[in-house]
Batch of 2 targets.
Target 1
Amino acid sequence: MSFSNASPGKDVSSDDLKSKIPLVTSPKLKNHVVHVAKVEISQNTFVVMAGPNTVENEEMMVATANSVKLSGGHMLRGGAYKPLTFPYRSEKYFETGIDGLKWLKTASLESGLPSVSEVTSVRNLDSVASHVDMLQIGTRNMQNFDLLTEAANTNMPILLKRGFGSSLRDWLGAAEYILNQGNDQIVLCERGVVAPHTHRSTSRFLLDLQVVPAFKELSFLPIITDPSHATFWAPWVEPLALASIAAGADGLMIEVHPDPRNAAVDPLQAISFEEFGALLTKSFGVFQLIRSKNTQNPTDSKE
Ligand code: PEP
Ligand code: MN
């Protein structure tokens, strides 16, 4: 189906396209590419960002980076500043701040994988920006408009996660803030939304796969999914990752850890190096199948 602003999602009116989100929905973004060091991210490519939830120490970061690279991953993730739900920290549950950023950078340089890490506040923007290749704005900050504006003004590429209670319209509005500062280097990331039925008591979110084609009707920016945070349950990461690709996602963010069940943060959702390797092999296969130019779209013959 060709790109058309004539049939916006029900949540976005044609007036919105003109007056509220003209930049993020602009046809001028057709074939737009986001550059993160040497990695190109667009609606025509498939990118995998992977790594632990938290940068715990240098050794685990370097081991993870090398393994992600070996499996065919393109970027390294890891949080140094974490938006943790409860204020208490312990030897087992911590964030590593500036030390973590240094370890992330070492692992990134050693493996050659560009890095992405979360900036949780304008207070740590400068330190995150000086150690990584891409800034991540997390679900809890999607509508922190000061942070969006300041992050945009670094001119660095930005991974904009969807607020877990935000509509597509609000998410587009957040991206518009970044574009309005003259920064078009944006990748969106669906990471699960709150929903009454999540099918396990440990799962807080439901991966909204429907938002992927809905977003693509409106914008040419790349969109990826994060099945790790959405499911909070390692055995569901692979099926939801593959389903994301089938739904049209341009990439994945996956939590990988050398010893998943002993991860400092979110141990239930991380997968092992071996599981990650197997997942990527299947992911590349599904991407080929879905996006191959030779794959006939069943609706084509009916039009
Ligand atoms: C993360 O990626 O580590 C993270 C905290 O994600 P989210 O903002 O989606 O919860
Ligand atoms: Mn996390």
Target 2
Amino acid sequence: MENEIKNITFSNGVTIPQLGLGVFKMKDEKELSEAIRVALEAGYRHFDTAMIYENEAIVGQALKESSIPREEIFLTSKVWNYDHGYEETKAAFQASLDRLGTDYLDLYLIHWASANYIETWKAMEELYNAGKIKAIGVSNFQIHHLEDLMSHTEIIPMINQIETHPAFPQDELRAFMAQHAIIHEAWGPLGQGKNDLLTQSVLLELAQKYGKTPAQIVLRWHIERGIVVIPKSVTPSRIRENRDIFDFSLSKEDMDKIATLNTGERYSGNPDDQEFLTRTSIRPN
Ligand code: NAD
């Protein structure tokens, strides 16, 4: 069976590789540059960063050094909570481009639904219409945020990047997104290494059955559900392992077994946590 990374198509026809490398918390220049080099060598072409990760310059430099043409790379960044607002977003976008050393983004996301996201979205619509962003989307948006945004703006978000893993599969939000052709992207696809997710007996048994690792079983579960995944690792063997998920598929029965891991509990931040949204909307001096 072939092992090519599949593409998913947005509502506007633009495609996104279904697997990318997440680079949250990766700030060490040597380590991150090496991770990107290994990922590119393994066939990754999609990288997910954000202003708040404070590593856009390193990502941009590492991609440049690879000599892979810009148009073969899919690059995502995100506008942070204290940059919301029309003018602020335009300035934040340009600053991200400058740090990344590029003149367009493949995908730009509203990182969290903090105050003023409608004005932020209007700036993103304009940048999209001007061709500076190939696709625009959101992250950490609940159904009520999406409904509010869609009732006040022109373009429906093309993607929503949300915490998703077998313990928190997001079935309700996912069904709403499907109705509106909003692609589902998972952050924390491996459960962020928390709560012993990867040592659950269901996953160990399936790993044995398919001759894969528990991480590969979980990533393949996402792929079967049509979800875009951006697992993070700085370990070369894991970066390669996480890429090696397109040469097998899980049976319906085994997908159902993984569904039993649903606890309905998040492992990380709640998009409706107003204290977090307010605190992180204050620009540091
Ligand atoms: P993740 O689920 O990708 O987990 C990463 C951790 O899993 C690693 O630190 C490592 O400990 C472990 N791991 C990785 N590969 C493994 C393997 N093959 N076997 C065993 N363990 C393995 O969590 P994440 O980094 O939080 O999420 C992925 C990406 O999503 C981030 O890097 C970032 O780009 C994005 N993200 C976005 C948001 C958001 O608010 N939009 C929030 C968190 C993360």
